[in-house]
Design a protein that fits this description.
With about 450 residues, this protein is of the alpha/beta class. It has 3 domains: about 5-145 and about 265-330, FAD/NAD(P)-binding domain, CATH 3.50.50.60; about 155-265, FAD/NAD(P)-binding domain, CATH 3.50.50; about 340-450, Enolase-like, domain 1 (2-Layer Sandwich), CATH 3.30.390.30. Helix content is about 30%, strand content about 25%. The protein is built from 13 helices and 23 strands. It has helices at about 15-25, 40-45, 50-65, 80-105, 160-165, 180-190, 210-225, 275, 315-330, 355-365, 375-380, 410-425, 430-435, and strands at about 5-10, 30-35, 110, 115-120, 120-125, 130-140, 145, 170-175, 195-200, 225-230, 235-240, 245-250, 255, 260, 265, 300, 340-345, 350-355, 365-375, 390-395, 400-405, 455, 460. Strands 1, 2, 3, 4, 5, 6 and 16 form a 7-stranded mixed sheet that branches. It has a 7-stranded antiparallel sheet with strand order 17-18-21-20-19-22-23, with helices on both faces. A 4-stranded parallel sheet has the order 10-9-8-14, covered by helices on one side. Helix 3 packs across helix 4 (about 80-105). It binds NADPH dihydro-nicotinamide-adenine-dinucleotide phosphate. The site of NADPH dihydro-nicotinamide-adenine-dinucleotide phosphate (NDP) has 25 residues, from helix 6 and strand 17.
Length: about 450
């Protein structure tokens, strides 16, 4: 069978690969994308998008309860999981079609097959056996959930992939992990009415986030009835009559209807033929790349979660776009991975950008901390016991705001905008010069006058 020649062969039809393909084609390149599962990748098919739809669903419970304080009488609401899942699936199918048609409009060829590398320029489709000669190859195969050590009964454990397709809402669920996915799903299931237990191996959830954020979120999640067990791991899972019996390292056990692990994701590097061509891996297990996403093989590039840099969809999209502009558009662009804003869609939400207090104190000579905790206005009439939290981390030498940490409603929306100010190197004085929008929660970001703490080197003043 003759080889088809292409300028760019992209392996993986997720956020990074699709963006790279579309932009490269726009620059005149002949491009093929291979995807073995569904177009759109993790974010669209079984990640950010369906997750956010479930988050929306879960928040109605509080809305119904809170309505009473505002004079509404809401009949006892009922919830139907199959309706939610069917509607979510319809929306995901629509988005998958949109991804496909956008690529087709951009004149990118799509092959729905697994592709592997035979040598630096030869890509083979596994099912059809067809081969391509590619001038350049982009690996954008993303990541996959990993469950850690092989404990007894691991076959009973689900990941977020299966959580999106459960036939029924579990009455009781135990989730292992203390990161994004564990906590987001804890909020989803608790909001929808499940009894939720989170088991985390460390001292407190959300390792790597600001200590105040970690403490505040834990309290708020516990107020919503989520049981958070720290310094424990799941040691075994046994199928029993009434569900699954989950053993913990302290020898306690729980019987639940579902056991989910959200213990991180590994780069999808297996059986791609990387060893055939000598593509090197980095220390974190992802494909090693330079600032232009180039691997150790000069014509092979990699973007997104498979590189295990910052595993967020917008980062993968930026990397894919920069790759295509650099290689096919004649403008060499390196992605700036500093000060990436991010949100955790827990209940309440978390939004953060820049340095935590601990990181700032470790890297800056002077650090000023401003923080506030307050009851959101809506909670007053609703008589809901909840507080929001905001913190600004300021470089005491330059007055630049170097970090912002928010826990509360719409934290994700707020942090996107604060991210602009931080990227523009705004100072605390410039934050303060902005007129407040009243009454909002975000106004606190421009009205925090009193320093909560001030540090010079290691010693607190
Ligand atoms: P995270 O890395 O965020 O969290 C993994 C959690 O599992 C951590 O608490 C970790 O503990 C714990 N863990 C890891 N290995 C084990 C083990 N062997 N036994 C017990 N616990 C373990 O990964 P997630 O799976 O939650 O999410 C993957 C990535 O996807 C995120 O890092 C993020 O980049 C992205 N994501 C982003 C979202 C968003 O932007 N809103 C939403 C969902 C995912 P420890 O902290 O001690 O290492």
């Amino acid at each position: 069978m003759p080889f088809e020649k292409v300028d760019l062969f992209v392996i993986g039809g997720g956020s990074g690969g699709v963006r790279a393909a579309r932009i490269a084609s726009g620059h005149g390149a002949k491009v093929v994308v291979a995807e073995e599962y569904r177009m759109g990748g993790t974010c669209v098919i079984r990640g950010c998008v369906p997750k956010k739809l479930l988050v929306y669903a879960s928040r109605f419970a509080h809305e119904f309860e809170d309505a009473a304080g505002f004079g509404w009488t809401v009949p006892e609401p009922t919830f139907d999981w199959p309706t939610l899942i069917a509607n979510k699936d319809r929306e995901i199918a629509r988005l998958e079609m949109a991804y496909t048609s956008n690529l087709e409009r951009a004149k990118v060829a799509i092959v729905k097959e697994r592709a592997v590398l035979e040598d630096a320029h030869t890509v083979r489709l596994v099912t059809s056996g067809m081969r391509y000669h590619a001038e350049r190859v982009l690996i954008a195969t993303g990541g996959t959930p990993h469950h850690g050590a092989d404990i007894a009964g691991l076959e009973h454990v689900i990941s977020s992939n299966e959580a999106f397709h459960l036939p029924e809402l579990p009455k009781r669920i135990l989730i292992q992990g203390g990161g994004y996915i564990a906590l987001e799903f804890a909020g989803i299931f608790a909001g929808l009415g499940s009894d939720v237990t989170v088991v985390y191996r460390g001292d407190n959830i959300l390792r790597g986030f600001d200590e105040d954020v970690r403490a505040h979120l834990r309290i708020e999640m516990e107020k919503r009835g989520i049981r958070i067990i720290t310094r424990q791991t799941v040691t075994d899972v046994e199928k029993v009559d009434r569900g699954y019996c989950v053993g913990l390292s302290d020898h306690k056990s729980f019987v639940v209807d579902r056991v989910m692990f959200a213990t991180g994701r590994s780069p999808n590097i297996k059986n791609l033929g990387l060893e055939n061509v000598g593509v090197a891996l980095g220390e974190t297990g992802g494909i090693a790349v330079d600032e232009h996403s180039r691997t150790s093989v000069p014509n092979i590039y990699a973007v997104g979660d498979v590189t295990n840099r910052i595993n967020l969809t917008p980062v993968a999209i930026r990397e894919g776009h920069a790759f295509a502009d650099s290689l096919f558009g004649g403008k060499a662009i390196a992605v700036d991975h500093d000060d990436v804003p991010t949100a955790v869609f827990t209940e309440p939400e978390v939004g953060v950008v820049g340095l935590t207090e601990v990181h700032a104190r470790a890297s800056l000579a002077r650090v000023d901390i401003y923080k506030t905790s307050f009851r959101p206005m809506k909670a007053t009439l609703a008589a809901r016991d909840t507080r929001s939290f905001m913190k600004l981390v300021v470089d005491g030498t330059t007055d630049r705001v170097v970090g912002c940490h928010i826990v509360g409603p719409e934290a994700g929306e707020m942090i996107q905008l604060v991210g602009i100010a931080i990227k523009l190197k705004a100072t605390k004085a410039q934050f303060d010069s902005v007129m407040a929008v009243h009454p909002t929660a975000a106004e606190e970001l421009v009205t925090m006058r009193e320093k909560a703490a001030s540090y010079h080197q290691e010693a607190a003043e």
